[in-house]
Structure formats: C-alpha cells, structure tokens
Design a protein that fits this description.
Layout (H helix, E strand, L loop, with lengths): L2 E3 H4 L3 H4 L2 E5 L8 E10 L8 E9 L7 E11 L3 H7 L6 H8 L2 E2 L9 H11 L3 H18 L44 E2 L12 E2 L9 E7 L2 H9 L4 E4 L4 E5 L24 E6 L5 E6 L2 H14 L5 E9 L18 H4 L5 E3 L2 H10 L6 H16 L6 E5 L2 H4 L2 H18 L7 H13 L2
Helix pairs in contact: 8-13, 13-14
C-alpha cells in the first residue's frame, strides 16, 4: 500500500495547513522546529481512512528546508471496528493498534526522538479541528486519485473516549489516569468557523467556548502546606506529581462556573477539561495559568471561597494582548505558547502605577474642581491612548475593589486584541473605553 505526500497533489494548500511545533526549551526534543507532513494512500479505489505522518526536523532560517525524517506515525480516525472489517485478513492486537493509532509504524526506521514526537502528535489529535482537517485532506486526495468517481460519504469522526480518572492510564505506565497523563494531554483549542474575511485566519476558542487568550494570575503565598491541604479536599483539583502542579478541572465544584459552553453541553468524551494549572515557581508565590479572560475572572472569587485569604492573596495579573492562531509564525501559534517564557520578566511590560499615582497626587494642588476634573480626564485619556505591550502585567485589588476591576481591565484588553486581529492596529484602550461607553448608553 504506497503512501505519497499530500503536498505533491496540493502544493498550495499543504504549506498553509501543515501542523508544526517549535521547541524553545530543552526537554524530550532538542530546540528547533518540527513539521508533521501528511501522506495518504495513492492506490486506486482504496478507502483505508488513514494517514501516515512523517515528522521532520527543520533547518533554521533562511533556508527553512526539511531536515532528517525522525518519525513515521500511523493514524486512523475511525473506530477499531471499521479497520477490522476493512482488513482482508485477521488482525493481531499490534496490527489493529497501528492501523487505528496514533502509533509508530513498526516496519519503518524510527529515530531516538520518535517516541517524543508521537507524544506531541497524540495531543494534536485531541483537537477535533485538526482531525477534521486531516479527514478533509484525505477526501481531497482520494477524489483526485480516483478521478472524481462517486464515493460513499465518510462516517463521522469518532474520538476515543477518555479513560476514567481511576482507570489505568492508556500510555501504559501502569499508573492511574489521574496520577499520570490527566491534564498533560489537555485538548488543543478549536477554531471559530467564521474566518477573518481579509486574512482567512480563524479565531481560536477554548474547549469551553471562550476566545483563547493567555492570562497568568499571581498570588502572594504564606503557607504552601495549607494550600495543598485545601486543594486536596476539592474534587475539582488533581495533583500532577511530574510537573509539581495542581490541575484545576471543569468538574464537581467547578461545574457551575459560567463559561460560554455549560458543563452539560460539552460532549462526554472531552471531559475532564483542564481549565487552569497552579504552579509554585518560587518561595512565597503561587501562579495560576489559564487560557481565557473568563477563566481568570471566574477563578478569583471561586478560589477566594475555598482558600484562606491569609494564606493566598491575588496581587497581579498578566495577559497576552493578542489572539493567537493554530498555524502561523512560531511565536503566534497556540501550541508554542510556553507560559514561563511568555510571562518571563524580560517579556512583560508593567503598568507604571507609581508614575500614574504621582500624576494623580499632583491634582491636589489644583483648587478649581472643574479644572481638576479636566486635568484628570486628560491624564486618563493620555494613559489609555498608549499602545499596549504584547504581554502586560498590572496590579489586582480584588479584596478592596471586587472582581469588576479585573474583569473590566481584561475585557478592554480583549476588545483591543480583537480589533488588532481584524487589522485595526492603531486601536487603543481609549477606543475600547469609548466603545463600551457607547454600548452602555444604547437603549
């Protein structure tokens, strides 16, 4: 059964719709970019409903040429029963596992990095949009190979159900799923079906339906043991021993949180959904990384209810002031947004609250109330008219001002990011404030 690259028949489509990853920190793969090239069977009349993936390293710019072949992966998107019927001979367990996949192809050479590349590919196929793209490419390829002959429609994609939290982990480690891969293979986001008419880019959505936009919350921490004790009593929290993090799940106590897609409307095979991760990078600090502004401002009152304010208190928030894409430049891709790199001190632009406070203090010297209000308006307009940094960190005063301050700040940033995504690069926070004010005044 010969397989040939998708790009040979569709040289214009393939470069736009080929998945790649960029590794920026040493881990299971060396630093660099890796491309996952699709190959389909070119045998006349075949309907195997599978794809081979060739994983290549990629040379650094300016050449950008494909490097050595590092792994060959097999993936079939139908149920196992389909491949049993399709095969013309009895299948062993190993044969069926390879046909269904994702799995390394046994009869081809594999590099030492093949297992790591397979693990990355397994996270890709948890994204329904990516699997749907592979199925669409398969249909395009088959229609061309078979000369446009009518074919029965493909059956829907049927994702394998996730194991239960207490069931054996499918990775084969022997551990329970909740103690092993739960949260590590968090589904990648889906895309909004309506692309930007100018660029054809699509907005990326979280599994719970919000716009994908990274936010990090910073908490002052005085007692780590108390935090561990309180988290362990929550059914929506699981500890990931390998990463040393607490994973916040969209289950049990968290089911009532208000996201675009309610818990009951999300397909069962996608549960449990990871909606946040807590990290303890340095003494006296706890971080919460989330994928949307809604998850950020829902998290603050949620955990304020369960944690002691004397133990953990939110002090700052940081946001990525742009809406990322599934494919595109490496630093704009969802799959490449490493939070520790993204929110590193060297990348963050801070709101200079001290300088702003000094300007405000200067208003005390003004006697006229009208003049004072006029000057205050000018200061706020000047501050709001500045361009936002790509990554911005600002103080949060939840215990004094409630959640509306954080919610409003994040919402304005998202409005600006949306306008920039539409190509309006000169749009500022001041414009967003005026937009919100107009909306509030409309009947």
């Amino acid at each position: 059964m010969p397989f040939a690259p998708f790009f040979e028949l569709f040289p214009e489509v393939a470069p736009r719709e080929t998945r790649s990853i960029t590794i920026s920190r040493m881990g299971d793969l060396p630093r660099g970019t890796y491309r996952f090239i699709e190959l389909f069977c070119n045998e006349d009349g075949c309907d195997c409903r599978r794809v081979f993936i060739h994983a290549f390293g990629q040379d650094t710019p300016p050449s950008g040429a494909l490097g050595p072949l590092l792994a060959t992966i097999s993936f079939g998107w139908e149920e196992r029963s389909f491949y049993r019927k399709w095969a013309s001979f009895p299948l062993s367990t190993e044969d069926l596992n390879e046909l269904k996949g994702p799995a390394l192809v046994r009869m081809t050479p594999q590099s030492e990095y093949a297992p790591a590349l397979l693990r990355h590919f397994k996270t890709f196929v948890q994204d329904d949009a990516y699997v749907a793209r592979i199925v669409r490419h398969y249909q395009m390829y088959r229609n061309t190979i078979d000369g446009g002959k009518p074919k029965p429609p493909l059956t829907p994609v049927h994702p394998e159900p996730k194991p239960g939290r207490n069931q054996p982990c499918p990775c084969g480690s022997g551990k329970k799923y909740k103690k092993c891969c739960l949260g590590k293979a968090e589904p990648l986001p889906s895309v909004d079906p309506k692309p930007n008419p100018k660029t054809q880019k699509q907005l990326v959505l979280t599994t719970t339906g919000e716009l994908f936009q990274r936010v990090r919350l910073y908490c002052e921490l005085s007692d780590r043991l108390d935090i561990d004790s309180r988290f362990s009593k929550l059914a929506c929290m699981d500890f990931d021993e390998d990463e040393g993090r607490w994973v916040w799940l969209y289950i049990k106590e968290a089911k009532k949180l208000r996201f675009k897609y309610a818990y009951s409307s999300i397909p069962k095979h996608l549960h449990p959904i990871v909606i946040g991760s807590f990290y303890f990078r340095k003494e006296g600090e706890m971080l919460l990384d989330v994928r949307s502004i809604e998850r950020a401002y829902e998290a603050v009152p949620f955990f304020d209810h369960y944690l002691d304010r004397g133990t953990a208190r939110i002090t700052h928030a940081a946001i990525l002031n742009e809406l990322p894409v599934l494919d595109g430049p490496p630093d704009a891709r969802v799959s490449e947004l490493d939070c520790d790199d993204l929110f590193s001190d060297s990348n963050i632009g801070y709101v200079d609250s001290h300088a702003l406070a000094q300007k405000m203090m200067g208003l005390k010297e003004v006697d006229s109330q009208d003049k004072k209000l006029e000057m205050l308006g000018a200061i706020l307009e000047q501050e709001s008219n500045k361009s936002l940094p790509r990554v911005e960190k600002f103080p949060v005063h939840y215990h004094g001002e409630g959640i509306e301050q954080l919610k409003g700040t994040l919402t304005l940033r998202q409005i600006v990011a949306m306008e920039h995504w539409h190509g309006n690069k000169e749009y500022t926070v001041l414009d967003a404030i005026k937009k919100v004010a107009r909306s509030a005044s409309e009947p």
